[in-house]
Amino acid sequence: MNIAECLQKMRLQANFNNHVILSIPIPNLKTTTTMPRNHLLTVLILLLLCLPGCSGKPIRHLASDICLVSEGTTRHEVMTYLGMPNDRQMDQANEIWIYYQVNKSLLRKTPFIGNNLGEEDVDVITVRFTGDQVKTCAYRHLTPEEFKNFGMDAQYEPGDK
User: Fold this and answer.
1) Distance (Å, rounded) from C-alpha 53 to C-alpha 48?
2) What CATH number is attached to the domain comprising 83?
């Protein structure tokens, strides 16, 4: 078998400048879908309806986030881990940041009648600073009544979001 036959077999053509060009036959490409158009449209609409569920207000998990804060952590790091505090207080020479999160059961979240059903509790974190570093931090899991007696200036009332 000579070179010309090999080139012909591989569908290669030599041009006049001694360059070799690869010519590959391209089949007639038609876009075909295995799914009928109305099913495809339904899937697209469902995807668009689900997208808002992927965005929204970030959720804090104070019970687990407290593990990130320890003695010696800086204010900037606390702010990064926990965000803005719900309340700030001062005592003698220390500043105290208070974070709280109201947890409601599924029944409690029921519109119109939810305040009479289910349970509600409050997670509270207190972070005490000396200078720019954490001196102590504590986590408490309280009932709404205990939270009212906690002695902070927060505007929370049971049933609030």
Assistant:
1) 10
2) 3.30.1450
Contact call for residues 107 and 117 (beta carbons, < 8 A): yes
Q: Tell whether 86 is covered by a domain.
A: yes
In contact, 81 and 65? CB cutoff 8 Å? yes
User: Rounded to whole angstroms, how far apart are CA atoms 66 and 51?
Assistant: 31
In 10 A of CB 46, how many CB atoms?
10
Domain containing 124 equals 62-148
Q: What is the pLDDT of residues 93-131, one digit of tens each?
A: 889 999 998 888 888 878 888 778 888 888 999 999 999
Q: Is this structure's pTM higher than 0.90?
A: no
pLDDT tens, 17-76?
Answer: 455 555 555 555 555 555 566 777 888 787 777 766 665 666 778 888 888 899 999 999
CB 49, CB 41: distance < 8 Å = no
CB 95 within 8 A of CB 74: no
Query: Of 136, 140, 96, whose CA–CA distance to 121 is shortest?
Result: 140
